[in-house]
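Protocol step 4 of 6: structure prediction from sequence.
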Amino acid sequence: MGFTGIPDDAFDFFRELGLDNSKSFWRRHRDRYERAVRGPMADLVAELASEFGELRMLRPQRDTRASHDKSPYKTYQGALVDLEPGLGFWLHLDASGLHATGRYYSRAPQETAAYRSVVAGDRGGELQSLVDGLETLGYTVGGATLQTRPRGIRADHPRVALLRHRTLDIGRSCDRTAAGLPSAAEWVALTWRELRPTLEWLSVHVCPVARELRRSETAR
């Protein structure tokens, strides 16, 4: 039948999992997860794949090995497609609704250094204009940031807010009512289309610098 919307029980499932994140809860509600969460998300992912490429759905179990939080399950269902390493589209469903973003998520110091060197330079104003335009459309700019400006960046730098970022996660959300409609698939697609120019800018101007920095580090 294809994607028909996210059922109400998916949001209720994650709300209840947040209150009782235990293996016993999961065992009792595993069929419910498959029916209300994973099945509809798989249908949504399949509908988006023709335009954006094959998305990978995340497993529900958390990797707790390096975390102080030992709760065994994620309180969201995520899916992503990478345009290249560290850059791509992200989608997740949680108790509050559906969230669609575009991300530059640096996994090594070289990626952060590449991002900051380009954004601080002559072409960084282009990214600022793209981000400003998205904020005007109601998008939220998130991601991991420093509490203060990076070392070597003056306080009055015109892009100091962007330069504080170690990762960028730009997107928007819809509530459970809107996510419950078949049109939620087109809402995600429109979100990603509007984000695509920003991701393409990062792909052209930041990712090659990151690759060169990684090669330089490897050659040492």
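Step 5 (inspection) to follow. The first helix runs from residue 8 to 19.
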